[in-house]
Amino acid sequence: MLDTIKKWGKILLPLIVGGITSVIISPSMDYDKVIQPPLSPPKIVFPIAWTILYFLIGLSYYLYEKDYKNKIKKLYIIHLILNYTWTILFFSLKLRGLAIIWIISIIITLIFIMLEYYKTKKISFYMLIPYLIWLIFATYLNIGVYALN
User: Is 35 within the bounds of a domain?
Assistant: First the structure.
């Protein structure tokens, strides 16, 4: 029973913390109020995309970690902290220039994680490709919002 709780805890951790972060920043969300760059998706796309992505992040780490315990755990935790902090920087604090640098650091840490996954657990690597693509798109949106506002 405890093993099942640990398993699901690892898989759902990114989703749970992402949900908590979303609740924290929701009063300061201004997506509808800022000038958005071309290709900006409707507001409803974000919670759907992030739910899927956070699940994939957790599942990919769980599948990796069960065979390679603690090898990149610190980098994974740092990556998640960077991810959640970006949301606060961008939406709550409106530090959109700093958020550009921050999201690039998120991408860099993700690439290091993905390289490790590719060497040792390819399924975990492939699960993170949609996340990497989304982060690149989010970087475009971040730059666009910064430049237009």
Answer: no
Structural domain includes residue 54: yes
Is 26 domain-assigned? no
In-domain check, residue 115: yes
Kindly tell me if the per-residue pLDDT of 81 is higher than 80. yes
Residues 142 and 114: their CA atoms lie apart, in Å, by 23
Residue 92's domain spans which residues?
Answer: 2-18+49-148
| Spatial distance between the Cα atoms of 112 and 106, rounded to a whole number of angstroms | 10
Burial class (CB in 10 A: 0-12, 13-18, 19+), 70: exposed
Q: What 3-state class would DSSP assign to 71? A: coil
* Closest to 61 in 3D by CA, of 51, 73, 74, 50: 73
pTM (two decimals) = 0.94
Q: What are 146's two structure tokens?
A: 């910064």
